[in-house]
Amino acid sequence: MENLKILYVASEVIPYAKTGGLADVAGVLPRVLAEMGHELKVVMPRYGSIPPILLEQAKVAFAVDIKRMDQPDTLDRLRLYRIKDETLPLEYLFIDNEKYFNRPELYRNPKTGKDYIDNDDRFIFFCRGLLESLKKLLWIPDIIHANDWQAALLPIFLATAYRKDPFYARTKSVFTIHNMAYHGMFPEESFDKLGLPANLYYPTGPFEFWGKLNFMKAAIYYADLITTVSENYAVEIQSSDEYGCGLDGVLKSRTEDIFGILNGVDYNEWSPATDRYIPFNFSSANIARKRDNKVELMIHLGLPLRDKTPLIGMITRLADQKGLDLVADIADDLFDLDIQMVVLGTGDLKYHKLLEKLEKKYPDKLKVMLAYDNKMAHWIEAAADMFLMPSRYEPCGLNQMYSLKYGTVPIVRSTGGLADTIDDVDEKSGDGTGFVFDKYDPEELLSAIKRAVDLFAGRKNWRRVMKEGMARDYSWQQSAHKYAELYLRALNKN
Ligand code: ADP
Question: Could you give the domains of the chain?
Answer without folding.
Answer: 5-264+477-491 (3.40.50.2000), 284-474 (3.40.50.2000)
